[in-house]
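Our preliminary data section would be incomplete without showing what the modeling component actually yields. Below, a chain of 260 amino acids is followed by its predicted structure, encoded as tokens that our downstream tools consume directly.
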Amino acid sequence: MMNAALDMHEKPRIVLSARGLTKIFGGFAAVKNVDLDVEHARVHALIGPNGAGKTTVFNLLTKFLQPTNGTIHFDGTDITNAPPDKVARMGLVRSFQISAVFPQFTLLENVRIALQRPNNLATQFWLPLSSLDRLDERAEELLEIVGLLADKDTLAADLSYGRKRVLEIATTLALDPQVLLLDEPMAGMGGEDVAHVAELIREVAKTRAVLMVEHNLKVVADICHKITVLQRGEILAEGDYAEVSADPRVRTAYMGTEEE
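Predicted structure:
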């Protein structure tokens, strides 16, 4: 079911890697000895049952949590002890399970806000509001990429839930990430929005790495090049969809519990 085109003769570049990643909370190991390699221009999924440690791994990789043990490297740089704002500026950018947009602003204004930091305008409060007009062209480009340009003057509050998640992807792309981490991007969406966001992720991954936590196995099968299955904080299996779905341990632990 893999639709993404791969160059079988070129070894992908690893842009984000973890070795021995472990997180212990009060004696409970939420993540245990996880090794992970995320490759450029690939979609990589983390899947597993509830409580498997997927979001904890995300929080460790993006430095919202500090690992108890293990190391994390981003584009060859050790970021194990780096703060989250630093790794975001380096190009490791994430979304969250709950949509994070400014409902009182238009779609264009939301993307302009996101563009302020990479354009060194986030802290220059003395500049007039018109100084942000220079960001309009890029903001409109990003809205066109995600299919929202026609609604650029619409308030974010008036969007459907699915379209808010699409807007959030536009704001994360404004930071020009090398690695985009998406935490359950399809959660709560209807079928039309799921198809749109899946295709958007496929397009985004042509020029950057995407690591996503996702429960929709049809989406995972259709767009992901590599899948890591977690169970009780440990890697149970890894490979493409055909490989992991054929693994009897995976079917027992996770896939067999999913609705067809």
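The chain has two domains: 1-91+178-260, 98-176. The longest strand covers residues 14-25. Preliminary results of this kind motivate Aim 1 of the renewal.
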